[in-house]
Amino acid sequence: MSIRRRLMTRFIGMLAGTVILIILLGSLATYWVVQKVNEVNLVDDFAYSGLDQLIDTAEFMPDGTIKYDPKLLEQVDKNQGWLQVLDEQGYAIDDYHTPSDVPAHYKPGELIAYWEAEKPFPYQLTILIREKNGKNFTLLYGERNSARALLDQIRPDHSYTSGKLVLKPDAQELIYSANAYLQVLDASGRELVSYNKPAMGVPSQYSLQQLILLVRYPSRSGISMATWYDEQNETTWLIGVPGDPSLPGDQNPYNFILEPTLIVLILSVIVLLMLLAFWYANRFGSPMLHMLQWLQRLERGHYEEPTGASGVPRSQRRNGKWKRKYRVYAEVLRSMQALSHTLKQDEELRKQTESLREEWIAGITHDLKTPLSSIQGYAHMLEAEKYNWTEEEVKEFAGIMLDKSMYMDRLVNDLAMTYRLRSGGYQPDVENTDVNTLLHDLIQRAEQNPAYGEDRITFQPSEVPVHGLVHIPSFERIVDNLTANALLHNPPETKLVVTVHPGEQTGAFSIQFADDGRGMEPETVWKLFERYYRGTDTGTSDVGSGLGMAVTKGLIEAMKGRIEVQSAPDEGTIIWLIWDEKSKNKSNLAP
After folding, report:
1. Most CB atoms within 10 A, among 135, 235, 248, 346?
2. Which of 117, 144, 171 is the last residue of a domain?
3. Can you give the CATH number for the domain in which 207 is found?
4. Within a domain: 382
């Protein structure tokens, strides 16, 4: 998977995870709100909210009794309520805290009269009919409304006429004993007159909605209220009996649920986003900072990857595998590793090349200065008037000067050839040639060179005819260089064997130059084809100028071939000249 797809996958996954977490937080908040609303409803309006739960959680026991949820029964006790379960004939088959003044059996229509307040009943009734376990049963829930009971008791003993409130002593005593108060309101809800009204906390005017809420939800204000409307005078009589309020003041209890929930939810989302931002910065930003630091180190010439306190690269574990947060950038890190390795190799190669260049410049300077000094010396000797040189001496001096100048000319030509070969400016015209015959002739000519000695070269032609595309003058130069290298830079007893091997494809062949000389160190093998390899003095032939092998390599590659060397100290040297398909492909890729 590419880095683009990995990053896209990670980002989509992160966003999806964020959405899921926010949905989860919202779901938890919603669940908490629902639970709290249910709790408030049980306190605020148990007759409507609690009875459903009470029936849903009820269990019918084998003995005919009913088992209720203990928490719901606690709320029944707090409300000073009672329960009755009636069968289809109106008989109470189960009860809970039922007062003695509540009947155990209801005649047809009697219960409805109590429920619709057509017949006096000391309790406020709520009826719920349900089917369970294949049977219909009726659940009665009753609460004593102290304000309603007090109002029913004093109604015959009070009147309001001509702006005056008249209460009998018995009614006054009932109001005082209950710590209650009485208000008479006009048609707009303003107070006309009051009795035993507290100095603080009781309003003098009520709106329609406010009055309904106070009567409907006594738990919110902690005051039980009841009203009676006097049609004759168009006044409203209001009785208030203080109790134990569950919530202080005249406030909506749902505000204490929704507001904190909203605040907590917003804070949770903010904290979640901050944690995700920190995680994102650590997961994606930390590797980028690491790579930036690495690039800055590369700029300063330090090629190693930055390491941690343990000395291990920060992007890797001790076993060499990528750390989890660095895996998404694996391609970039591998490229940077390759870049660091290449830059380090180039730096080492540059230092080695500079060292070789200095050695080569020193050698070339020496090689040019030495013959030039000889030429200048003999020229001064010939110019001096105090010497009378014989004709033989002048010829001898001229021969030495000519030999030295020819050496300098060959050295300069070799130097120019290396640059032409390196830049690709030399493209010889090749022709199909019998390799066995050409090499046999060149070896025979080399055997006649007195500098090589006698019987030091052995030629082994291929058993089958071998033809290849070569440039004959360049090929002659190659053979001369390799022969001189093997015989002039080794002990006198060194033998050279030249062998021709046919290739598998048409036009493919190889030539092996194997000697049993002193061999070479690996560093010398590495420098063998460098044009900066240090030269020798003028006492040797031109092949010792340090440019012969560089020219040889360039000429072979110009003819679509390649050269390989195998050597070890005291084990001799084997040089292969190879022309095959691999050599052609390599030549086509070369600049």
Report:
1. 235
2. 144
3. 3.30.450
4. no
List beta partners, residue 159: 166
CA distances from 241 to 151, 276, 310, 472 (A): 10, 55, 78, 129
Are both 457 and 471 inside the same structural domain? yes
Q: Which amino acid is at 507?
A: G
What span, in angstroms and rounded, lies between the C-alpha atoms of 126 and 140?
Answer: 6
Angstrom distance (rounded) from CA 391 to CA 259: 126
Question: Is 107 strand, coil or helix?
Answer: coil
Distances in whole angstroms, Cα of residue 558 to Cα of each of 18, 342, 470:
64, 27, 10
What separation, in Å, do the N-terminal and C-terminal C-alpha atoms of the chain show?
A: 34
CA distance 591 to 422: 9
Task: Give the full edge-to-edge strand order of the sheet including 191-195.
Answer: 191-195, 181-185, 235-242, 223-230
* DSSP letter (8 states) at residue 546: S
Does residue 216 sit in the same domain as residue 278? no
* DSSP strand pairing (573-579 vs 59-60): unpaired
What is the DSSP-derived secondary structure letter of residue 315? Answer: T
Domain boundary among 78, 109, 144: 144
- Residue 468 · residue 506 · CB < 8 Å: no
* Count of positions (residues) in the chain: 591
What distance in Å separates the CA atoms of residue 55 and residue 359, rounded to the nearest whole number? 105
8 A C-beta contact, residue 142 and residue 81: yes
3-class DSSP state for residue 313?
A: strand
Same domain, 266 and 242: no
pTM for the whole thing? 0.41
Residue 224 gets which letter from DSSP? E
Kindly report, residue by residue over 538-582, the tens digit of the pLDDT.
444 444 445 678 888 888 988 889 999 999 999 999 999 999 877
Residues 6+ apart with CB under 8 A from 480: 442, 446, 543
Is 211 in the same domain as 298?
no
Do 406 and 552 share a domain, yes or no?
yes
- Sign of the C-alpha dihedral computed for residues 534, 540, 545 and 547 taken in this order: negative
State how beta strands 92-96 and 81-86 pair: antiparallel
22, 269 contact by CB (below 8 A): yes
**Which tops the pLDDT comparison, 87 or 366?**
87
Look at residue 10 and tell me if it is in a domain.
no
Looking at the structure, tell me whether residues 275 and 170 fall in a common domain. no
Amino acid of residue 127: I
Same domain, 114 and 172: no
**Domain assignment of residue 40, yes or no:** no
Q: For residue 531, what pLDDT band results from cuts at 50, 70 and 90?
A: low
Rounded mean pLDDT of 502-519?
A: 91
Residues 474, 491 share a domain? yes
Cβ count within 10 A of residue 140? 23
What lies within 8 Å, CB to CB, of 481 at 6+ separation is 543, 548, 549, 551, 552
Give residue-wise pLDDT tens across range 330-375.
888 888 888 998 988 888 888 877 877 777 677 677 667 778 888 8
**Would you state the structure tokens that stand for residue 202, as one six-digit string?**
């009781």
**Averaged confidence pLDDT in the chain:** 82
Q: What is the spatial distance between Cα 259 and Cα 286, in angstroms, rounded to a whole number?
A: 39
> In total, how many domains does the chain have?
4
What angle in degrees, to the nearest 10, is found between the helix axes of 472-488 and 548-558?
150
By three-state DSSP, how is residue 462 classified? coil
**Is the residue at 371 inside a domain?**
no
